[in-house]
Write a sequence for this structure.
């Protein structure tokens, strides 16, 4: 997997989100996992333009882990 910046305001990358997900206790619910990731990385707390990109990354990471 290639690392890339998802949240430009807070400089949060795909790998940062993946690392934050490893600390999440809500690995079965995307929206609750999003809240955990947001608390750890502060992604999507600036302009909010990356909200859907963050959700997509979480879904992709969670989907890969469940295979």
């Amino acid at each position: 997997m290639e690392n890339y910046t998802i949240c430009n305001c807070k400089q949060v990358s795909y790998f940062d989100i993946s690392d934050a997900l490893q600390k999440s206790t809500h690995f079965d619910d995307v929206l609750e996992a999003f809240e955990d990731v947001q608390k750890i990385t502060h992604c999507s707390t600036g302009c909010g333009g990356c909200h859907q990109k963050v959700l997509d990354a979480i879904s992709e990471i969670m989907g890969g882990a469940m295979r």
